[in-house]
Every structure is written in structure tokens, then in C-alpha cells.
Amino acid sequence: MDIGFIGLGKMGFPMCRRLIEAGNRLIVYDVRPEAVAEMVKLGAEAAKSPGEVADRAETVFASLPSLDVGMKVAAGDDGIIRGNRVKRYVDLSTTGSRFAVQVHDILKDRSIVQIDSPVSGGVPGAEKGTLAVMVSGPLDEIELIRPALSVIGKVFVIGDKPGSAQTMKLANNFLSATAMAASSEAIAMGVKAGLDPAVMVDVINAGSGQNTATTQKFPKSILTGKFDYGFGMGLMMKDVRLFLSEVEHMGIPTEVAQAVGRIWEMAHTENGAETDFSRIAQTIEKRTGVEMRAKKKS
Ligand code: NAD
After folding, report:
1. Cα of 65 to ligand 1 centre, how many Å?
2. Are the beta carbons of 58 and 86 closer than 8 angstroms?
3. Could you give the CA distance from residue 127 to residue 106 in angstroms, rounded to a whole number?
4. Is there a contact between 201 and 219 (Cβ–Cβ < 8 Å)?
5. For residue 8, how far is its CA from the centre of ligand 1 (angstroms)?
């Protein structure tokens, strides 16, 4: 299948590589020429703009860092909307449902079908093809791209309403953001009382407190002090803010989400958008006066 792919970042690059390895023809674009050059080495063809990608492929995927970039790529001067061949635009980015509906409505005027397909499972999941792939859009269109989505991960059809996969994704990421914040506070509390953070993580992972922060992020990036999990602080902040904005728009009262939002705002301000999201642990360490590092084995 001919597939256009825009955005060859931490997630886009491994997803695109898997699609090439599965025998698809990939036409790619990214504002970073070095990322495009790397993908060309793996067998992709380069395009000079999103519009050119959409001139050369009926199906165009995108994995982009912000709503501003997403809108520019979809509907900007040289965006997907200008393409002559494109029939469907599959957005793998996390954007929230209201943005997805906005893009859906703009592209509909040009008879381009918008399909939401946000993913979860991080860079390791993108590399192994084990992502949770949430998808919403016209069901016959989803069936056409199911083989490609299956290369990326496990496909969950959420519904045919535009944006519903985005709603699903924001609920998931709110839980992931909460797990990071709450686990950091729990472990910092234990360390303050004299417990070993590595022992705490082992116990929690054998017990009922287990979650994705304690099973994955603490062992890989926090206990080691590497802070290299592969998900940007700015991206996590985007997702938490999107969740809060959606619940506000829906008129739903939330208590936990407000507190989680405040701690992520602090972590974002202190560490910066370009750092890894695992640095939220350092924001909590600073407030607690401890370090949650595993002791070096002698
Ligand atoms: P990233 O910043 O690593 O990658 C974004 C890519 O888009 C970069 O290669 C960048 O050069 C490119 N780009 C920026 N502006 C562009 C433009 N105008 N035209 C074309 N390309 C442009 O981000 P990521 O971590 O790969 O995340 C991408 C999306 O996936 C985000 O919406 C994020 O929320 C979501 N996501 C990320 C993860 C993760 O663990 N990193 C997990 C699930 C979902």
C-alpha cells in the first residue's frame, strides 16, 4: 500500500520504519531533513511538503507534536488539503476531540476523510509494534487501513463519531499522568521516612499499587537517574491541559484532575517543555527534600 507519513519523531520514526518493513511504499516529510534522510536510507521516498505527500499517496498518516503544527500540516498553505491524490488523513497524534472534529470539518469540504488514531504505549511500543491503536471514523475506511494500523499495534475501533478515539486517548493519558504524579509522591514519602526507593518499587509492583509509572518509568528512567523515557514534558503537559479543557467544556466537575494538572504545570515550568516527562519526579523530590535513586550495586 502507498502511505504518506508526516512527522518522523520519537513515535513517528519507529512506526514509519515498521510500515516499510511490512512491505508498504512510504512517502515521508518532516521539517527535520536529517530525519527524512534517515528514513530514505531505510527505503522511504522523500517529499518536500505535506501537500506533496498528499499529491503522491491516497492515505496519509501524521504524528505531530502540537495542535498548531497539526492544523498547519492538515489545512495550511501547503497542507494535506492541497493534495490531489489524498483520500484519507489518519492522525496518530494526541489532539483532543474538539480539534479532531475541527480538522474533520475542514477536510470534509475537500472530500478528504479524517480518521483519528491516537496511540498509547510509548516509544518501546512503537518500536515493537505493540501500541494500543485507538481509531474512530467511517468504519469502511477504517477497514481499508486496518492492515497498516495492525503493523503499529493492537487496533481498537472506538466508533464512527469523529474525535471519539481522541476522547479515549485523553482518558488513558490522564491516568498515566496521574500515576506518574501519585507514584512520585508515594515513593518520595517512603524515602523521606528512610525506605529504599528500589525496594519500594519492587514491593509496589508485587502489590496493589502497581501501575505504569512503577512498572516502567521508575525502573527505566527515575531510579537510574537517566530521565530518558522518550515522552516529552511539553507533550504530557499538552495532554493534561487537553483533558482539563475537555472536562471543563463538558461541564464535568473533577477534583483529582485539577490537582494533577497543578503538579504537571509546576514540573513543566521548572524543567521545561523539552525535557523528558519523567523529570516530574525531580519536581516532587525538590519539594520533599529527597532523591529517589537506586543505590549503586558495589
Ligand atoms: P516528537 O516531537 O518526537 O516528534 C514530532 C515530529 O514532528 C518531529 O520529528 C518534528 O520535527 C516533526 N514536525 C514538527 N513540525 C512539523 C511540521 N510543520 N511538519 C512536519 N513535521 C513536523 O513527538 P513524539 O513523541 O513523536 O509525539 C508525536 C505525537 O504522538 C504527539 O501528539 C504525542 O502526544 C503523541 N504520543 C507520543 C508518545 C511518546 O511516548 N512519545 C506516546 C503516545 C502518543
Report:
1. 4
2. yes
3. 32
4. yes
5. 7
Pairing status of strand 59-62 against strand 45-46 = unpaired
- CATH domain 2-161 topology: Rossmann fold (3.40.50)
pLDDT of residue 168 exceeding 90:
yes
The reply to whether 169 belongs to the active site is yes
* H helix and E strand count, the chain: 13, 9
Is residue 141 scored above 90 in pLDDT? yes
Q: What is the pLDDT of residues 189-224, one digit of tens each?
A: 999 999 999 999 999 999 999 999 999 999 999 999
pTM score of the predicted model: 0.95
Rounded Cα distance, 125 and 153, in Å: 8
Ligand 1 site, CB within 6 A: 6-12, 29-32, 35, 63-65, 69, 72-73, 93-94, 119-120, 122-123, 230-232, 235
CATH of domain 167-288: 1.10.1040.10
- As a whole number of angstroms, the longest Cα–Cα distance in the chain is 65
Tell whether the model's pLDDT for residue 296 goes beyond 80.
no
Residue of 72, 108, 169, 226 marked active site: 169
Q: Please tell me if the domain spanning 2-161 has the same topology as the one spanning 167-288.
A: no
Ligand 1 site-directed mutation target among 6, 10, 134, 268, most atoms within 8 Å of CB: 10
Pairing of strands 131-136, 88-91: unpaired
d(CA 228, CA 178): 19
Summarised one tens digit per residue, pLDDT across range 40-87 is: 999 999 999 999 999 999 999 999 999 999 999 999 999 999 999 999
Domain ranges across the chain: 2-161, 167-288
